[in-house]
Amino acid sequence: MKPEIVQVATISEIFQKMQQHDRADAALYRVNGAWKPLSAQDMYQRIRNTARTLERWGIGRGERIAVIGENRPEWAIVDFAATVTGLVDVPVYPTQTPEQMGYILHDSGCRAAFVSTREQYEKVRSVRDKTSLEHVVVYDDIDEPDAQRMSRIALSEPYARDAEFDAIVATMKPGDLATIIYTSGTTGTPKGVMLTHGNIAANVSSSCAHYEWPLGGSYISFLPLSHITARHVDYIMYARGVSIAYCPSFDDVSRSLAEIRPHHFVSVPRVYEKIRQEAERRAGHGLRKMVFDWALRVGRKHRDEIIVGKRPQTPAYKLADTLVFSKIRQALGGNIREGISGGAPLGVDTANWFADVGIRIFEGYGLTETSPVIALNTMSHYKIGTVGRPLPNVEVKVAEDGELLTRGPSVTQGYWNMPEETRNAFVDGWFRTGDIAEIDADGFIKITDRKKDLLKTSGGKFIAPQPIENALKGNVLVAHAAVIGDKRKYPAVIIAPHFALLEDWARVNNVPFHTHEDLIHSEKVRALYEGIVADLNSRLAHFERLKRLILVPDEFTVTSGELTPSLKLKRRVVEKKYATLIEALYAEPAPEMHPTR
User: Fold this and answer.
1) Staple 74 to which of 139, 265, 364, 477, CB 3.0 to 4.6 Å?
2) Do residues 509 and 542 both lie within one domain?
3) Cβ contacts of 34 within 8 Å, gap of 6 or more
4) Is 1 helix (H, G, I), strand (E, B) or coil?
5) Looking at residue 542, which CATH number applies to its domain?
6) Is it the case that residue 322 has pLDDT exceeding 90?
7) How many C-beta neighbours within 10 Å does residue 293 have?
8) What CATH number does the domain containing 253 carry?
9) End-to-end Cα, the chain, rounded Å
10) How far apart are CA 224 and CA 93, in angstroms?
11) Residue 593 belongs to some domain of the structure
């Protein structure tokens, strides 16, 4: 049965929905290896007490507080405590450096900061004298004279309905500023995106109307809550009465999936790619690999049925499902047959592979500035290779230069302290997304690349790197790819291999190695990746073909700087890191139309 429509006008109403569902396990968190529940009443108690503490500190409506930490119940507690009482919260990625944190805390004028661990506390302490911070609250119980303990604040008073607090919650208006989210960005100074209660609530309501979110069940919150996508989904889950299990580390996701067995799954493309790579790795070699490949061929024959939501009933498919596909679903906990992907482009090859194993991945699209969802594929309207149709209350159009423009109630009012940036973000009332797009006859949107990412060769040809990079990542031996060639004679590519699979390949093919450096300098390994690139080149336009290849021995990570916290490629960082290799590559004579050494 389809659940009731969710219509909310403010974050306060989302908070009230959570109370109405009154789940005994509204939130879950792991303590000493076991999951511990927080009921809706527990959440109310902690949110009310935190809000009352902020009130006692004299932090009033419109003033800012920072939230710095991994995904934990405390994140939601502080978020609700601030937003439902008129404060403005400022999420900060825990992966950011002290200098980056200092800029955000200073620019936003935060008076208090809630941080998760001693590590985050030390970062804040090192820049505190450059900020307006008066209070620092730590989730973990650490013994520092200028740090306050979250447990003492959140548990200061036992649960009881608080009529005065509830009255304050009910006064929030759609036009009230709720949050300032600083874009992680791939270049330049971070911009503080201002989102109101109405921006966020309109997007939650429209997302629920557009996508058939089931009522109840469970969900694992592991995408960084400092990013609007994760926060948006958590709001939907609370409004739908879904139990949220907080997973503070990507390394814990597989374990959490097995233990929680969630009914909903939202992730970024990189996680889906890793699930596929791990499935391919586990398939191994010999008979097991033969069975795996056979099952994929069977799934491919039934892809069209899967895409429209049918479960194939042929004997061959049922056998393939028993032997292979059910094991892949088990890696997601066993209850998931659909997933949502956002935050970065999902490769068509990856989407097709999941469809072949019986899992539909609904790609969506949006920006921090749009709260975030602009478009999303759904169970009833699904087209692989697109980001779906726009939400009901969102308008889109393509400008003459190919840029996607949008407008609607979920679009930001602008950037904090940046009036010129705000003016430049709009044209005739339409927000400039910065993405190049196409809209087909059925209204589905296809994002082809970031406007700023387009490469222009010295011959004047424009190349969109993301589709090429996604096609390369369709091969499980490629973990990351970065196309280069701006203002150069021809395009080339930097590839970071998926080393777990490459090591297995090397052992089977008698390639000796001790380190990643040994692997990338092997003649056989180089020939393998040159073949991958050559195969893709056969499907590219003449001017797009990658004429040289750089293999690197590194994993691209958020910590090492090549990826944003939402796992997007930082192209300029990659180019700077490997500048010496790039210069040496382009110093050589012009190559043939295939990758060479």
Assistant:
1) 139
2) yes
3) none
4) coil
5) 3.30.300.30
6) yes
7) 13
8) 3.40.50.12780
9) 60
10) 8
11) no
Residues 461 and 448 in one domain: no
Cα distance between residue 221 and residue 208, in whole Å = 18
Q: Which two tokens stand for residue 30?
A: 């792991």
Q: What whole-number distance in Å separates Cα of residue 335 and Cα of residue 260?
A: 10
- For residues 8-18, average pLDDT: 98
| Statement: residue 595 has pLDDT above 50 | no
Q: Write the pLDDT tens digit of every residue in 422-446.
A: 999 999 999 999 999 999 999 999 9
Residue 249 has pLDDT above 50, yes or no: yes
Asked if 97 and 238 sit in the same domain, the reply is yes
Q: What is the pLDDT of residues 461-519, one digit of tens each?
A: 788 898 899 899 989 999 999 999 988 889 999 999 999 999 999 999 999 999 999 99
d(CA 124, CA 136): 8
Chain centroid to Cα 192, Å, comes to 18
Please count the residues of the chain. 597
Measure the CA–CA gap between 478 and 489, rounded to whole angstroms. Answer: 25
Q: Which residue is associated with the tokens 């740090």?
A: 147
Task: List the single range of 166-170, 191-195, 352-356, 535-539 with lowest mean pLDDT.
Answer: 535-539
CA–CA distance from 124 to each of 130, 137, 416 (Å)? 10, 11, 21
> Which of 222, 242, 265 finishes a domain?
265
CB of 137 within 8 A of CB of 113?
yes
Specify the amino acid at residue 243.
S
Task: Indicate if 356 and 325 belong to the same structural domain.
Answer: yes
> Could you give the number of structural domains in the chain?
3
Among 418, 403, 345, 406, residue whose Cα is nearest residue 371: 406
> Are residues 100 and 239 located together in one domain of the fold?
yes
| Model pLDDT for residues 204-225, shown as the tens digit of each residue | 999 998 997 878 899 999 999 9
Domain range for residue 105? 11-265
